[in-house]
Amino acid sequence: MTTNAIPPSLGHLSATELLEGFRTLEITPLQVLDTQIERVGLFNGDRETGINAFTETLFDTAREQAAAAGAEYVRLAREGGRAPALLGLTIATKEKHGIAGLTLEQGLAAHRGKIAAVDHPVVERIKSAGGIIHARTTSPEFSCATTTHSPMWGITRNPWNPAASPGGSSGGAGAALAAGFTTLATASDIAGSTRIPAGFTGTVGYKAPYGRVPAFSSLSADWYRGDGPMARTVADTALLASVISGRHALDHGSWGGRDTNPLLPGDVRGLRIGLSITLGDYPVAPEIRENTLRVARALENAGALIVPVELPWTTARIAETIFAHFGHILGPAMAVETAGTEDQLAAYTTRFIADAAAAATRNTLVDSLGMDHALQAELATAMQGLDGLLCPTSAVTALSADGDYLNGIDTPARHLGHYWEAHMTSPFNVANRCPVISVPSGLADDGVPTGVQVVGHPFEESMTFRIASAIESLVPGPGVPLLR
Predict the structure, then answer these.
(1) CATH of span 10-474
(2) What band does 3 get if pLDDT is binned at 50, 70 and 90?
(3) Which of 3, 170, 398, 406 is in the most buried spot, having the most CB atoms within 10 Å?
């Protein structure tokens, strides 16, 4: 596997490294923030040709917070005591994670000028843990595409290959992490929107079990959906997960304790790990297949038993299943939210609403529940006796940065009727009590990273992070992209 040997800048250091540096007073939060601000100025560029990872920046306020955090570390070093979990770390939040008094537009012309009344629970918890929100990241309209571009915010590009998308919908988050613009980032996931950009940007993205991360909106009741963390390492992802997860008094769908870091040492000796390269019939690109097998061999050499897993799935069936669901929940919601501005929508949004509506005419909501149950039962059967399941994150190596893919997507093996069939993430939104984390597996020939998913049994977060941590230690990541 080819890796990029460029040494990381201060802006690319992990959260765990930075926290140690802050505690020993060898690094200050302001130094890190200023390095990342400088990188944004040098490399983020414009909305058409640049990386374009942010909807807005909050640098002035962030610099004040970073200076205050540095002073607090000096006080703690002198007087003793424990710093809040994220004190002094930069976090770029997805724009949909509202910040009171700032915009909450979600890339939609219909929401232009809309202001958030309260902080999203993710934002609330980051602030209370001492995190510094210095920027807000781009997404496609209503976070509903696997590329990241919109008429409102322009095109977001992959730092590894500007012609390629960083994925979506949390594409701005993945791009910002890869480029060294932030230390941590928030994301969301209804069909892979955290894991897809993690896979394409050489970063780590975690989809927690449904309800583990609280939210306030009515659509948070959609059981496919969830918010979560992204970072450059498994440990950093676990750190942010530990802060934003847990029961919230105002979200009775949320559950679990607070401040419990799920990361365990990455020892896989004696574990039984399932391996499915295709999850049925996904047309997995040769480079992705080889990188996934490399991960499996590394786990096997470390003492795990790799068990081949067969699943009776097809991409067409999975697409029909998720669009039946969307046809009764997300599609109608989007139609309501965008009413009167249809002529201003991105082509992919118009297509999504139409596809969801068509699926709803073919399948009732009760039909949809039955389709969900069948996939869940088949996954449960396949995972019996296993400690986790390993599979690729996406079947294709890249998507075009500005692509709409209205006619599906061509792969070397066959044409896929819907481009969402190119990603191997949505079955685990159907089975949304399963924790799933995407970690890097290598690079493809086009210079874009590839990823693998670790799928855990329902609610078994610790084992999922344990296997992911082992992969990270055994298989070197792609490194740092060369930016010009």
Answers:
(1) 3.90.1300.10
(2) very low
(3) 170
